[in-house]
UniProtKB/TrEMBL annotation:
InterPro entries: ET-Flavoprotein_bsu_CS (IPR000049), ETF_a/b_N (IPR014730), ETF_b (IPR012255), ETF_beta_N (IPR033948), Rossmann-like_a/b/a_fold (IPR014729). GO terms for molecular function: electron transfer activity. Heterodimer of an alpha and a beta subunit. This is Electron transfer flavoprotein subunit beta. The electron transfer flavoprotein serves as a specific electron acceptor for other dehydrogenases. It transfers the electrons to the main respiratory chain via ETF-ubiquinone oxidoreductase (ETF dehydrogenase).
Length: 249
């Protein structure tokens, strides 16, 4: 079984976000970029399937600038077998990402696409769903458990009321939630080995897909500063503040 894992290069989750002075977006200059955390979980799950003898091959794919090679090398160091960079310096919206991924799926013919439920930069939570729709494949989003057997995937999803388990025919698209697994760190020897693994580059413009944005960012702003908390001396004082200041009781 072949597994395709899309991985996005995003601002590292531990870096404090700075908004550009003109409010047009987030300032990424000279800041640490990393693999989207939900995509690390997807890579980990693909590796687990390979270790269990279920997956035979893992292909990582990223759409982005030349620096997204680093993200792909991380996926290779974790355990992916090969990588594809679809190179573009444009900002690509989820629909265009889904269309590009569809063309890679058409080329690579994987049995499973496993990807993050959302990218932590745009928080769109759209790409997996749109990719499944474009492919006409079944989808299971927000997976917290994945079992593959007999050409089917059984996926437990985190939903509002608890857990829901779906059975899907393969090929399918699965998106990962936080509790699916804990991604491994790449060991130094594996980082070295990853440098020799195949990384193909494709120019996004060569795919004949419109990358033109359909959305315009009107403004980007930091959330308002939170006021510092206060220590109360008694339960009565707390109740009084909740009633008269916070007005929530
Ligand atoms: P989003 O719909 O933007 O929140 O992204 C959901 C998932 O789609 C991410 O976790 C990635 O797996 C995938 N994805 C989004 N953008 C890209 C990209 N530029 N390159 C590779 N994968 C991407």
């Amino acid at each position: 079984m072949k597994v395709l894992v899309p991985v996005k290069r995003v601002l590292d989750a531990n870096v404090a976000v700075r908004v550009k002075a003109d409010g047009s977006g987030v300032d990424l200059a000279n800041l640490k970029m990393s693999m989207n955390p939900f995509d690390e979980i997807a890579v980990e799950e693909a590796i687990k399937l390979k270790e269990a003898g279920i997956a035979a091959e893992i292909v990582a794919v990223s759409i982005g600038p030349a620096q997204a090679q680093d993200t792909l090398r991380t996926a290779l160091a974790m355990g992916a077998d090969s990588a594809i960079l679809v190179k573009t310096d444009e900002t690509i919206e989820p629909l265009a990402v889904a269309k590009i991924l569809k063309s890679i799926v058409d080329q690579q013919a994987p049995d499973l696409v496993i990807m993050g439920k959302q990218a932590i930069d745009d928080d769109s939570n759209q790409t997996a769903q749109m990719l499944a729709a474009l492919l006409g494949w079944p989808q299971a989003t927000f997976a917290s458990k994945v079992v593959i057997a007999d050409g089917k995937a059984s996926v437990t999803r985190e939903v509002d009321g608890g857990l829901e388990t779906l059975e899907l025919d393969l090929p399918a698209v699965i998106s990962t939630d936080l509790r699916l697994n804990v991604p491994r760190y790449a060991s130094l020897p594996n980082v070295m080995k990853a440098k020799k693994k195949p990384l193909e580059e494709i120019d996004a413009a060569s795919l004949g897909i419109s990358l033109a944005p359909t959305l315009r960012v009107i403004s980007t702003a930091r959330p308002p500063e939170r006021k510092p908390g206060v220590m109360v001396g008694s339960v009565a004082e707390l109740v009084d503040k909740l009633r008269n200041e916070a007005r929530i009781i």
